[in-house]
């Protein structure tokens, strides 16, 4: 028996609750883990709101919040290869298990071992922010010296993209609110404050000939404001807004497999991919952590220390 933070029905923060539940039993292709650290993402409150029902795995209410975690394997389901009880691992709860919990199940093909020397806190940020950064930049395939605009640079994914881009020799401009400036500039970003200046004008002045690529993490009207700054609309990559195709751009092609997790972990271990963890909340304050991400005030990555 353990505790979990979840939601009793779809809705806003008012449907969230802490509840007791038996340890889940891993099914075919799943591993049961004791959760050490859970990552917090905007997708968590989007799932709670019922906007992406498929990610709940069809499980009954109450459902557990969260989709990425690091911890220790306690049990294996059938047909699990490459993982053993006692391994320190990180990965995705893609079958609806949730990760804001003392124990949970992860999808084994989407789970990897944590390499020696890498902390559980950093590992817990890699399934979403780390692999997204790798996927975006691999999809673009830009040469060193190319210019990229990261629209919405101050969150966990944005800072991961910016930092990895800078490590690859790209020239990075990023947009964000005033509170995000220091973190963005720390990873080599030339920062545009959307609360103080016109984004299109300010970014255009920094790179008058147009950007070789734009990575959008905001969507909506903001995406449509910056998209014309790209030299080639096909190099506008959106992480959250599929309507980018209407502008001639592309949606990020995600790879959630073990190989990509291991690659992200290796880059993190080498210091090339450095997730910016701005807050580590205790398990008792899990909903405070989610609220910070939901209201957009969080800088970088927020994680929950469970055990």
Q: Which band does the percent of strand residues land in?
A: 25-35%
Range of helix content = 25-40%
Instruction: Give the domain tally.
Output: 2
Shape annotation: globular
Specify the number of helices: 9
Known CATH architecture of the largest domain: Alpha-Beta Complex
SSE order = EEEHEEEEEHHEHEHEHEHEEHEHE
CATH topology descriptor of the largest domain: Quinone Oxidoreductase, Chain A, domain 1
Query: In whole angstroms, how far apart are the ends?
Result: 15 Å
How many beta-strand runs? 16
Major β-sheet annotation? 7 strands, mixed
Structural class: alpha/beta
Weakly predicted, low-confidence segments = none
Radius of gyration: 19 Å
User: Briefly, what CATH class of the largest domain?
Assistant: Alpha Beta
Quick one: CATH superfamily of the largest domain?
Medium-chain alcohol dehydrogenases, catalytic domain
User: What is the overall pLDDT average?
Assistant: 95
Describe the structure.
The protein has 307 residues and is an alpha/beta fold. The protein has two domains: 2-125 and 275-305, Medium-chain alcohol dehydrogenases, catalytic domain (Quinone Oxidoreductase, Chain A, domain 1); 128-251, Rossmann fold (3-Layer(aba) Sandwich), CATH 3.40.50.720. The chain is 26% helix and 27% strand. The protein is built from nine helices and 16 strands. The protein has helices spanning 42-48, 120-123, 126-140, 156-167, 181-186, 199-206, 220-226, 258-269, 286-294, and strands at 2-7, 16-21, 30-40, 63-64, 68-76, 88-92, 103-107, 111-113, 147-151, 171-176, 190-193, 213-216, 236-238, 250-251, 277-282, 301-305. The strands form three sheets. Strands 3, 5, 6, 7, 8, 15 and 16 form a seven-stranded mixed sheet that branches. It has a six-stranded parallel sheet with strand order 11-10-9-12-13-14, sandwiched between helices. It has a three-stranded antiparallel sheet with strand order 2-1-4, with no helix packed on it. Strand 10 (171-176), helix 5 and strand 11 form a beta-alpha-beta unit. Helix 3 crosses helix 4 (156-167) and helix 3 (126-140) packs across helix 8 (258-269). The chain is globular, with a radius of gyration of 19 Å. The chain starts with a strand and ends with a strand.
